[in-house]
Amino acid sequence: MVYDYEQVDIPDAGERIEVVDEDADELDIPENPIIPIIHGDGIGKDVGPAAQKVLDAAAKATGREIHWMRVYAGESGRERYDENLPADTVNAIDEFRVAIKGPLTTPVGAGYRSLNVALRQTLDFYANVRPTYYIDGVPSPMKAPEEMDMVTFRENTEDVYAGIEWEQGTDDVEQVREFVEDEMGFDDVMHDGPIGIGIKPISEKGSKRLVRKAIDYAIEHDRDKVTLVHKGNIMKFTEGQFGTWGMEVAEEEYPDDEVFAAPDSLWETQDEVEIPEDAVMVEERLADAMLQWMQLRTDEFDVLAMPNLNGDYLSDAAGAQIGGLGIAPGANFGDARVLAEPVHGSAPKRAGQDKANPTAMILSGRLMFDYMGWKDASQLIYDAVEATISAGTVTYDLERQIEGGEKLATSEFADEVVENIEDLA
Ligand code: NAD
Questions:
Q1: Residue 332 Cα to ligand 1 middle (Å)
Q2: According to the model, what pLDDT value does residue 263 have?
């Protein structure tokens, strides 16, 4: 789709990323792509430009050049267009396929939908992906944080996040109560008096495409295992069905020597099972148990695929194990499209002070490079960030936890990473 833009320009130089096959998630990536970027609100004003500088340096060091297309949303959208999420911005992310954004503030008050949710829904970014790995030198509450090297795939469009709910005291909620009690036969389940009711849709389409993305990622990145995390022992027809549909994808859509669906993995250990060499094993785990195993047997997990709510809780818990928000990267994947974004929000208290940690946004850019197949540039970013942090040169959030650390401003930290990129290239 090619759009006309009202208040932003497509860079003159640079080439478009073209879709080769949307269903197969295949893009044609030139060496000089046009990439839309939203710096973001609050600390986005600090970490956005800092990350951009680092990504430019890594591209340059590997013989490439990014032609950025600045687009606006949130506060900068309201200033320029009097709109939170201008059509120019949505259209640019749609047209150019690969994009990155900083955090956006959702103004408090009625009538404001979360911008992030709106963006994900409008462009059908159905998988929220968070790699969670340890960087040498980052303070962590764990004894062996280096054992963590996981990627979580969180379903992004349904579950209790679909927003189908009714407020206590309304006619609507009473109608739903009546329907559930009288027509569906659950007459003794709900308490009398005021009640709020929500609905948890989990579909075959939503579950299967998410699990397929996670398995494809595991194959492409030489991962050993995909764990489907759900609470199917209690919510049989939603969470349990997610597991069943996920295992169907593993069994039916891939050859056995490529993807091995572990039999009865919820209840049986797999010690005796013979897994074809080099195959990705797909297993199921209950969400409550998983929160324990993640801490007690961290190194056993690899790629996780989950419905929306489990993914929300689990990916934050995993992030805490390796040092928290300032360094946690993420991205939203759709079919042949990606929107990278750090996990953290706009931290308004620190905004515009050149203090916040840009690592999460830098590593989100790294994930975007990975998606583009720029593995050398992605590795260079990882090595340079690790070299910078392990030397103890860090932003305030890490400095206060590292003995003898040196506190750098956002921009200074980015400069240090750029220098390390140039040294390592
Ligand atoms: P937050 O992530 O902005 O801040 C939580 C805490 O983490 C704060 O103490 C903050 O100082 C710290 N922190 C976050 N990022 C940091 C960084 N890069 N360096 C150093 N410290 C960092 O979460 P919040 O306070 O709940 O939300 C603030 C605003 O951000 C809200 O308007 C919320 O809607 C929005 N938000 C946006 C996104 C997004 O755009 N994807 C995600 C979460 C929250």
A1: 18
A2: 84
**101 CA closest ligand 1 atom index:** 40
For residue 350 and ligand 1, the question of a CB distance below 6 A is answered with yes
| Mean pLDDT across the chain | 94
pTM for the predicted model, two decimal places: 0.94
Q: Is the Cβ atom of 378 under 6 angstroms away from ligand 1?
A: no
- Distance (Å, rounded) from C-alpha 326 to C-alpha 329? 9
Quick check: 269 pLDDT over 80?
A: no
pLDDT at res. 271:
72
- Indicate whether residue 325 lines ligand 1 (CB < 6 A): yes
- Establish whether 288 is a catalytic residue: yes
pLDDT tens-digit profile of 166-225? 999 999 999 999 999 999 999 878 999 999 999 999 999 999 999 999 999 999 999 999
Structure tokens that stand for 120 in this block: 């994900």
**Structure tokens, 341:** 């974004």
What is the atom index within ligand 1 of the atom nearest the CA of 103? 40
User: What pLDDT sits at residue 113?
Assistant: 67
Burial class of 71 by CB neighbour count within 10 A (0 to 12, 13 to 18, 19+): buried
Question: 347 alpha carbon to ligand 1 midpoint, in Å?
Answer: 4
The pLDDT of residue 188: 79
Choose among 36, 37, 44, 156: nearest CA to 103.
44
CA distance 408 to 414: 9
Instruction: Calculate the CA 425 to chain-centre distance.
Output: 28
265 compared with 340, residue with greater pLDDT: 340
Nearest to 305 by CA among 295, 315, 292, 319: 315
b/e map of 314-338 (b: 16 or more CB within 10 Å)?
bbeebbebbbbbbbbbbbbbbbbbb
- Please tell me the distance between residue 42's alpha carbon and the centre of ligand 1 in angstroms: 9
Best residue for ligand 1 mutational test, from 346, 350, 398 (most atoms within 8 Å of Cβ): 346
20 sits in which H/E element: strand 18-21
Mean pLDDT of 367-375: 96
Which pLDDT value is given to residue 110?
53
357-372 as b/e: b if 16+ CB within 10 A: bbbbbbbbbbbbbbbb
Residues in a beta bridge with 155:
127
| Interatomic CA distance for residues 156 and 174, integer angstroms | 29
Q: Is 40 left (phi over 0), alpha (psi -120 to 50) or beta?
A: left
| Residue 60 is among the residues annotated as catalytic for this protein | no
Burial class (CB in 10 A: 0-12, 13-18, 19+), 208: middle
